[in-house]
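Morning!

This is the sequence you dropped in the shared folder:
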Amino acid sequence: MDEDILQDFLVEASELVEQLDEQLVELENSPTDSDLLNAVFRGFHTIKGGAGFLGVTPLIEVCHRAENVFDKIRNGDVSYDATAADIIMRAFDAISDYIQQLNDGVREFESADEGLLSELDALWKGGAAPKPEPAEEAASSQPKLELPDDVDPDGEISDDEFEALLNQRDALDNSGSNESESEEPKLALPDDVDPDGDITDDEFEALLNQRDMMDGLEESKESASSAPAPPPEPAKPTPPPEPKKASKPEAAKPDAAKAASAESTVRVDTRRLDEIMNLVGELVLVRNRLLTLRSSDGPEEALSNAVGNLDHVTTDLQASVMKTRMQPVKKVFGRFPRVVRDLARKLGKEIELELKGEETDLDKNLVEALADPLVHLVRNSVDHGVEMPDVREQAGKVRKGTVILAAEQEGDHILLSITDDGKGMDPDVLRRKAVEKGMMDEVSANQMDDKAAFELIMSAGFSTADQISDISGRGVGMDVVKNMITKLNGSIDINSVLGEGTQIKIRVPLTLAILPTLMVSFEDDSYAIPLTSVQEIFDYDSSQINRIDGQMMVRLREKSIPLLFLSDWLAPDQVKDNYAGDKVIIVSIGNQRAGLVVEQVNGQEEVVIKPLGVMMKHLEGYAGATITGNGNIALILDLPGVIQRFQY
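The structure's back. Tokens below.
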């Protein structure tokens, strides 16, 4: 395989697979949508064409048969019902698997699954009854597909010519069922094509279609009379009929719009983007340094102007580069129509998935990192949230439940929400389960408000399922979601109303490359706290401090919050009895809050995260390091690790 062609094919095929995944599920709700049918047909056709260049025969076989089925569906000869959808979905899964194998470096493939090919053939051949043909045509010789005389066989085929070939093939399919036994058929190219030259897309398509036609002839031979008929003189090929407009309704408009959109986009190697991002990070550090120099006593006017200009340019460059790293959240959302469809069918539920804000952009690393947490949450909504159709009907609801997956930008954060109109969560049941599992005593459970009770589902080993299945019940999943979101410097908020439904909100930063922080210090040592976790800052007041079960707590708006004296960990050599003048920083980590006691708060600063290195990367409580505006090195605190260190 030519690796350049292969890589181009994989990029295009991966995008087509994402589109087909959504389109096939959407098609079940709109099985007669001609634009959608054409889009699916062309998706399979495009993948098949690329596979033909690369010689991946099994992929060609599956794509071609799926294409045949959709040709019949477009013409109204086959219905896209649940049975057809299941077969096509299996074909789509096989195609996705072949493409993934190519991505993984596989270059040799076993034959395609004969059972799947047979099912696709049965769906295609059983779709329509053969049409009677005139007597003079019944005795014609072996038919073969012909391009019009004015078409260059080595050139690009147009949409009309392509549709004309499809019309020819339909005619051959219908005539093949009534053919009498004749001489052994052979694949044949048009007379004006060099058999020793390279095969073109047109010729490749013609050969595949002829082969399908001959398969039909072979079947008809077995059922026909054994008396052989003398082969007649070959009929002179006639130009194909002009394609009907109805066979391709408005297909050109979406394609033209797509082509125009494609011209304005460029694919960039992500390794190059990462390199640019690192360079911009260094530029940000220089800007911070110059800004510090400008704020010193008696700066020269020229230096001040230069720094101001550098600040402006750096900010614009940073924003531009960040945009090149951005991808629409649709890259994540695209997989969920199929996830919900398959899971709902397995559980016997009727569920509609609504996607909102698919064009919201966020960093490509976050797009990849959010995939697994969202899968857990959506599966939970389908499994635990939405009731069975009969139960919903008895409760006065419509039989079909709704799950809404939405995204929107809030400042420098992305808000993702998963909302269902199911049964909701009962906080009393959650409290009782927590007591039964030994997570807390009954007194503590009764003192817990509903909000805290909902957050119990994020605890490891906690599950409300009465039976363990391959979908849920083991108490793993939601705690994984919590840990992954926390690592992304994000937060989770859960709201539920019994009998009405549940909403889970996730907030994550737009990017992980450059981190807004709150700079704090102990004498000459500086540390950075992720600003996304900071809720408020106030002066340390000993009158508001109490000790409860050995833990120092601060009273804040009728709630007690544990205090973590960072100097005990970060500056253990300093013996400190008086904390007057220190600051308390209230931070939120998942469903926990804590007060960090620091000596000094120096203000906000955007920093570039640098890894600590192989020897230090496993140190608990540290997320990395950065260079501050005054040129010193500051460690970035990993708040979940900090909480773990203090073990409160």
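Headline: Confidence is low (pLDDT under 50) at residues 128-142, 176-185, 216-264.

More detail when I'm at my desk.
O.
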